[in-house]
């Protein structure tokens, strides 16, 4: 009983605190800066204000633009992602890091504008571990436009933190939400993340695997504001699955 209660407390704390991997995993900011060429530093929540008088800003998606997310729920420092392709007025593909799983790089995954005004002030984002759109609505500031609309390659750099590449969404999905394997995506992580990398590659073919407890803390892994009863139920279910 004590072990069960301790496990529930750990999960509850993890959903409101910085994850264990936070200090060593690749963060969204350096990834977005390299891929977009938008040379802004500091926490993601500061990018929108820092961009004033330095870069054009707006609410229309463009290739190479940075989508700046407002702090919300467990995303206390905000988030930044780079638009890789505009599908239509309400759908884009993005590239970003440290969203679904600590340090994970998700390339060309779907983001949908769900705002009433159609101004990209609220979005839903693909959640790779479950192979579907995340259930949570995420508020954003808008888009920061790079000087040149191009995407820069991202090369693994241990100095930026450990990273692992996820699969990407099929660009020819035709409105369907499916995941295609990324054959040329080796794991770029130390041995302590090797097991996580294997589970991510397996998730490409089996997107509804048992929940990794570490993913519970991130973005759309669980809705915000969950009750303690829900959390305890998750702990019990995880114990049975193991």
From TrEMBL:
Residue stretches spanning the membrane: none
Pfam family, one: CHAP
Keyword Signal: yes
Taxonomy, superkingdom: Bacteria
Domain Peptidase C51: 3-124
Signal peptide from the UniProt entry: 1-22
InterPro entries assigned: CHAP_dom, Papain-like_cys_pep_sf
Keywords: Signal
Protein name: CHAP domain-containing protein
Organism: Sphingobium tyrosinilyticum
């Amino acid at each position: 009983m004590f072990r069960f209660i301790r496990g529930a407390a750990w999960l509850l704390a993890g959903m409101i605190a910085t994850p264990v991997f936070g200090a060593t995993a690749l963060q969204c900011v350096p990834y977005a800066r390299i891929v977009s060429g938008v040379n802004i530093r500091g926490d993601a929540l500061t990018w929108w204000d820092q961009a004033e008088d330095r870069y054009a800003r707006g609410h229309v998606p463009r290739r190479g633009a940075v989508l700046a997310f407002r702090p919300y729920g467990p995303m206390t420092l905000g988030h930044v992602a780079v638009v890789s392709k505009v599908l239509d007025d309400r759908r884009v593909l993005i590239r970003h890091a440290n969203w679904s799983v600590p340090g994970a790089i998700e390339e060309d995954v779907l983001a949908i504008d769900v705002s009433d005004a159609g101004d990209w002030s609220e979005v839903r984002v693909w959640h790779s571990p479950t192979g579907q759109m995340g259930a949570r609505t995420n508020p954003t500031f808008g888009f920061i436009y790079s000087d040149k609309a191009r995407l820069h390659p991202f090369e693994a750099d241990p100095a930026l933190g450990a990273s692992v590449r996820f699969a990407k969404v099929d660009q020819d999905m035709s409105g369907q939400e499916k995941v295609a394997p990324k054959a040329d995506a080796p794991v770029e992580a130390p041995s302590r993340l090797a097991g996580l990398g294997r589970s991510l590659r397996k998730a490409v073919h089996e997107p509804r695997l048992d929940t990794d407890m570490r993913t519970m803390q991130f973005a759309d892994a669980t809705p915000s504001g969950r009750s303690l009863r829900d959390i305890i139920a998750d702990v019990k279910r995880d114990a049975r699955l193991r």
